[in-house]
Predict the structure.
Amino acid sequence: MPESRIIVALDYSNETDAWHLINKLEPQLCRLKVGKELFTIAGPRFVEKLVSTGYDVFLDLKFHDIPNTVAQACKAAAGLGVWMLNVHALGGRKMMLAARDAIQTTSTKLIAVTLLTSLDKEDLAEIGLPGQPADIVQRLAHLAHDCGMDGVVCSAQEAVQLRQTLGHSFCLVTPGIRPVDAHSGDQKRITTPAQAIINGAHYLVIGRPITQAQDPVLACERLNAEIAILQS
């Protein structure tokens, strides 16, 4: 079976519900994302347990602080054995370089968040970032590339241009993925799984369309099959 490009977002408010889903899935079906809510509740031991069961874990904490603080946080996160972790590109060059240096001897992938997919042009203008989201994403992604990041988190809508300008080896992780018949929820810059792959995404972060499906395993299998057809 080809390597899965699906990252299931474990957006749960307690560890019990998270394990209820995890125990239905298999590491070959997907990777898992642990975000701020679940990490705050369940802690590092939960992440270590996921890793010990064979899952590739994306620790999505979006570190954004002074360079030394972020460097130490990244070092601690990589020590948990996670497959991937992230920082926020808006933290700037010095912060991203410090994060890169802190985990350069590990196998953990380090990526940078560009803009949250919940933000649109009006939201950005309100916080003093005028212009089109795609242009801001381009600037931040190129900065992340210059700082040695392995990739970025971006909307699949921005993946086409990033793939053209930054090459195929630069990893693009895309949240805001919704099947055609799914509700958009609180995401604004969204796209379908098929379109995200066509646009150049490496990995798709998918939450509710899998976690709230009547049969999460079947939902995951269907998405893997859809992606496999595009890759063939």
